Amino acid sequence: MDANFAQRRRRDLIMAFCLAVIAALVPLFVKDVYVQNIMVLTLMYAALSQSWNILSGYCGQISLGHALYFGLGAYTTALLFTKFGVLPWFGMLAGGAISALIAMALGYPCFRLRGHYFVIATIVIAEIALLLFQNWDWAGAALGIDIPVRGDSWLKFQFARSKLPYFYFALALACIAWFVTWWLEDSKWGYWWRAVKDNPDAAESLGVVVFNSKMGAAAVSAFLVAVGGSFYAQFVSYIDPESVMGFQFSLLMALPAVLGGIGTLWGPVLGAVILIPLTELTRSFVGGSGRGVDLIVYGTLIVAISLALPKGLVSVFSLFPWRKEAAR
Amino acid sequence: MTAETIIQSLASGLLMGLLYGLIAAGLALIFGLMDVVNFAHGEFLMIAMYATFFLFAFFAIDPLLAAPLVAAALFVFGAVVYLLVVRFAVRAKANAGMVQIFSTFGLAIVMRGLAQFFFTPDYRSVTHSWLGGKTVSVAGIFLPEPQLIGAMVSIAAFVALYFFINRTDFGRALEATREDAGAVALVGIDKNRVFALGWGLGAALVGLAGAIMAIFFYIYPDVGASFALIAYVTVALGGFGSVFGAFAGGIIVGLVEASTALILPPSLKSVGIYAVYLLVVFIRPRGLFGSM
């Protein structure tokens, strides 16, 4: 490993630490609940997109069905809590584990597929799960599940009055997802994934176990996304199939990474920090009319960024001289 | 469940399947030509349906007469989309696949937003037309006329497409560009022009489908989304790169959907389609007739 790369990684870690500390201090000054809500969502999407990026960005297996794992996380936590009284903390881990297992079970046949056949398979599988949940009476069918809120409690991870605990949990989740990515970037897996993304046949011939690499990426990615789903269920305290497993979630998870810079460490964070507040603000300022102006703004932004900056918003930063040197 | 109900629903499934094939034809054509999946395909269908609706509402033109007009309008629209958006997307030097997916996806969102803005989210329908609500009875089986005519239009369109691709100069240029977009420049074919015409043709096909769908389906800004996924599955099932695979794919999708509805509750009828797609690609990773 060359010195520049090691130096860059150290700098990334320090920068992440500083950003996390600054982010943690923000709520001390920003008391507005509406703004805090946007901050929670931004952090959650940063975490989700970072996790999505592991499979789709680093390993190059573009999934547009990650809503499945998000929904599984949300449903596992909510069902365990409402039906069996299992605390959400365990539900979160259970949801993550179930999602990781399902991701591998689905990966087994799906990772043989390439290109658009794979993308469509991921969409279709998430759609099947959505339809099944909509028809599964025990799990509340299309009506979904109301998670009873009985006052603030860390044990049950629910807070009726304050958004702050959710904020700090979302921040922790975003940090964990970032750190896992950072750590994997320089691990054997990280190198394998990039090799698989660039040229699976060449990678295979050089001794990379392509199939296992994909499975590993899928499991890590699904686990983290499911934890995000569990968090979301607690945060909104009401879930239904369309709102946690709908196709739009798969997209919302992918967009920050794609616009920020797919397969990069900072892309998902940057994308989420720009995209989510912008979406929420356009929605509340112009979207209230129900006339689709928010969609027009949002869609134009996606077209413009993907055409103008195919490497994502992070590529703007490489224009700075010190970054350019580090990127070399 | 009697034999009659089974035959009845398979017959309607077949008709619907031919329409699915027509909806998917443009998608398959564009993909075959330049390896780009148009993620705004459903929205192309949506504006075709709106165009049909407004021709009916303002000029009292029956959807059947409107169909060629709508197809022509969509031809222009498709070519313009290529020239304004897709042309730049295919030039991307990094992450080409992602850029194509998300630039057309962004376009889909913009189109949906514009439809909500100008046409409101209200559900609209063509309230009376020559075919709307009518059925014919063939040997005791009732067939809805709009779907029946739609199926015939679909067959006619595929036959025309076959002759067009195989027998005309433009069709040959299309095939040649598909084979090697770089080499055709040497024989004086402007690749951008062929691509623009390909997009126009693909959009015109979905325009034709939209005009017929407008007879018997509600028209609203999100209507494309419900058909887009079916169209992708149809094309992938047939195999990307094969226009006639889309024809076969459409028929299979229609029949599977109808048979699923016989067995499972109606809300689960799409599960059958998706399951068949997975089954097919797990066995044949490039679809039934895919050449890619």
Kindly describe this structure.
The complex is a heterodimer of chains A (328) and B (292). With 328 residues, chain A is mainly alpha-helical. Chain A contains 15 helices and 2 strands. Chain A has helices spanning 3-29, 33-58, 67-84, 88-110, 115-134, 164-185, 188-198, 200-205, 210-236, 241-245, 247-261, 267-285, 293-308, 314-317, 321-327, and strands spanning 145-146, 238-239. In chain A, helix 3 (67-84) packs across helix 9 (210-236). The longest helix of chain A is centred in the N-terminal third of the chain and has 27 residues, at 3-29. The radius of gyration of chain A is 20 Å and the shape is globular. Chain A starts with a helix and ends with a helix. Residues 324-328 of chain A have low confidence and may be disordered. Chain B has 292 residues and is mainly α. A two-stranded antiparallel ribbon of chain B has the order 1-2. In chain B, a hairpin with a 2-residue loop joins strand 1 and strand 2. In chain B, helix 2 (41-59) packs antiparallel against helix 3 (63-89). The model of chain B has no long low-confidence stretch (mean pLDDT 89). The chains are: A mainly alpha (328), B mainly alpha (292). Chains A and B meet through helix 5, helix 11 and helix 13 of A and helix 3, helix 4, helix 8 and helix 10 of B.
Secondary-structure blueprint:
The complex is a heterodimer of chains A (328) and B (292).
Chain A: H1 3-29, H2 33-58, H3 67-84, H4 88-110, H5 115-134, E1 145-146, H6 164-185, H7 188-198, H8 200-205, H9 210-236, E2 238-239, H10 241-245, H11 247-261, H12 267-285, H13 293-308, H14 314-317, H15 321-327
Antiparallel strand pairs in A: 1-2
Chain B: H1 3-34, H2 41-59, H3 63-89, H4 96-119, E1 135-138, E2 141-144, H5 145-167, H6 169-179, H7 191-216, H8 223-238, H9 243-263, H10 269-283
Helix pairs in contact in B: 1-5, 1-7, 1-8, 1-9, 2-3, 2-4, 2-7, 2-8, 3-7, 5-6, 5-7, 6-7, 8-9, 8-10, 9-10
